[in-house]
Amino acid sequence: MTGRLEGRAAVVTGAGNGIGKACALALAANGASVVVNDLGTSEFGVGRSASAADATVAEIRAGGGTAIAEYSSVATSAGCNNAVAAAVSAFGQLDIVVGVAGALLEGSINATDEEYQRFIDLFFSQKFWLARAAVPAMAERGWGRLITTTSYGATGLLGKPIFAGAMGGVISMTKAIAHEYQGTGVTANCLAPGAATRLHFLSRARFEEMHANGLIDDEGWESYLNAPPAEYVAPIVAWLCTDAAANVSGHVFHANGGVVGVWNAYSESAIAFRGDHRTNPPWSLDELDDVVPKTLLKH
């Protein structure tokens, strides 16, 4: 591809398969040296193996790129520290962090305390631990890129309240990092990917159930069944890591096949004003009976 990331060092978690692998390959193809982190579990987060990370490293090297494998669990703070330290040890610094690792875990309201904590550690805390380990040093050097993965599930429309909470939390946390590090040369953005991966198709039973219950319309169902490959997600990730994206921070990018989009920011979409609080009483419930549906929820 290009050499636009030449001299940059990256960590990509969950890079043994799917979207993580596609991102690692794209960063390497554009010149970055990559730490390929993957614990090597099954789709359900069971077991461990070096084979997934090793295969991605081999593919990068076969294409003339530079990569090393790292096998820590990024569902722990120590594992995130290990991944960051591996980049610094191998390449002298760390410029790019892409947090992708995930698994099919219990995310419903019936989850046990242990299942709840396991989910939060992998899908939310991973991104915090990676940022804590990497971003301050990036800011000291005056250049850095943090990309965290989120999901449409953040809207709550896929059910799974633990999943929704974790994905919404990732968005808010990433926006906060972007705000706190504005002007330092560090950017922080979210990726909401849509792609055919092993996790995507193993969740098909859940989507079939939702379609049968009318929670996904036929257009959405067809999009799910015809999900594009993961390599269509990777270009926006690589672009966000270039100098061209130096002023792009605090956004959620959606990538799905030929579509690249940006989600709207949190903002007040409607307002009802009754006057200065110093001269007007609080809203009455009878007033809100009228104001909420006719003004606040009109659109």
Primary descriptors:
globular, alpha/beta, eight-stranded mixed β-sheet, 14% strand, 299 residues, 10 helices
What does this structure look like?
It is built from ten helices and eight strands. The chain is 43% helix and 14% strand. Mean pLDDT is 89; it is low at 196-202. It has an eight-stranded mixed β-sheet, sandwiched between helices. The N and C termini lie far apart (45 Å).
Produce a short descriptive summary.
The chain is of the alpha/beta class and 299 residues long. The protein has helices at 18-29, 51-62, 77-91, 113-141, 161-180, 198-202, 204-212, 218-225, 234-240, 285-296, and strands at residues 9-13, 33-37, 66-70, 96-99, 144-149, 186-194, 252-256, 259-262. Strands 3-2-1-4-5-6-7-8 form an 8-stranded mixed beta sheet, sandwiched between helices.
How confident is the prediction overall: mean pLDDT? 89
What about the largest sheet?
8 strands, mixed
Strand order of the largest sheet: 3-2-1-4-5-6-7-8
Order of SSEs: EHEHEHEHEHEHHHHEEH
Estimated share of beta-strand residues: 5-15%
| Number of distinct beta strands | 8
Low-confidence runs: 196-202
| Broad structural category | alpha/beta
Helix coverage percent: 40-55%
Total count of helical runs of at least 4 residues: 10
Question: Termini separation (Å)?
Answer: 45 Å
Backbone shape: globular
Rg from C-alpha positions?
21 Å
List the helices and strands and how they pair.
Layout (H helix, E strand, L loop, with lengths): L8 E5 L4 H12 L3 E5 L13 H12 L3 E5 L6 H15 L4 E4 L13 H29 L2 E6 L11 H20 L5 E9 L3 H5 L1 H9 L5 H8 L8 H7 L11 E5 L2 E4 L22 H12 L3
Parallel strand pairs: 1-2, 1-4, 2-3, 4-5, 5-6, 6-7
Antiparallel strand pairs: 7-8
Helix pairs in contact: 1-9, 3-4, 4-5
